[in-house]
Write a structure and sequence with these properties.
Elements (H helix, E strand, L loop, with lengths): L1 H10 L4 H15 L4 H19 L8 H8 L2
Length: 71
């Protein structure tokens, strides 16, 4: 476990986006990509972007969401 602790300490200095990329890679190594699921999420993301750009959905500020669950 000491090696894992060393790696974790190194990870703490990374930017949030880099941490997320690392998590994604770790999860992909445990659960190999299911191309069907990946394609479905890509399609869903495109639909959401289009809906937002067209003014069909409203965004919520991250701070508002976090405040909602900080009870």
């Amino acid at each position: 476990m000491p090696r894992v602790d060393e790696i974790f300490t190194d990870i703490l200095s990374l930017k949030s986006t880099d941490k997320l990329q690392l998590v994604d890679k770790i999860l992909a190594s445990i659960y190999p990509d299911n191309q069907g699921t990946k394609a479905m999420w890509a399609h869903e993301a495109e639909d959401r972007i289009e809906a937002h750009s067209g003014g069909h959905i409203e965004t919520i500020d991250e701070k508002d969401i976090l405040m909602k669950y900080e009870r």
